[in-house]
Amino acid sequence: MGERRPVGALENEVLCCLWHTQRPMTPDEVRRCLDNGLAYTTIMTILTRLWQKGQVDRHREGRAFAYHPVMSEAELRARNMTDVLDRSSDREAVLARFVDTLSAEEVEALRHVLASLDGT
Predict the structure, then answer these.
(1) What's the domain count of the chain?
(2) What are the pLDDT digits (tens) for 8-40?
């Protein structure tokens, strides 16, 4: 029996493949891109889930659909972070704990982003 992936890991792998190619892909193209031996039906299921969640869009290409992400990786990750904050009863504590886990380079990048928002 194979090792189970964490929840959402396969969806993330599929999205990364779509972001990397920067063009719509059919399920078979995604399957070949991943090169991990997954069945075509598994890839179809993941792509359908992503489409139902609004993370990818699709259009008919021959007998199959071709899928493409509706937002960049940075946009999706930011939305995920916002979702986590929205579920928190203490946003400031979550933000403080998050910042505490950052490397010095990441803290500097965050300072740069905040400064650019302030116009300084």
Answers:
(1) 2
(2) 889 999 999 999 999 999 999 999 999 888 999
Q: Is the pTM of this model over 0.85?
A: no
65 and 16 within one domain: yes
Which residues span the domain enclosing 46?
Answer: 9-69
DSSP string, 8-66: THHHHHHHHHHHHHTS-B-HHHHHHHH-S---HHHHHHHHHHHHHTTSEEEEEETTEEE
Closest CA to 17 of 77, 64, 9: 9
Distance CA 57, CA 29 (A): 16
Residue with the two structure tokens 């946003």: 91
Which residue bears the tokens 């007998």? 63
Q: How far apart are CA 21 and CA 30, in angstroms?
A: 10
Judge whether 2 lies within some domain.
no
CA 119 from centroid of its chain's CA atoms: 29
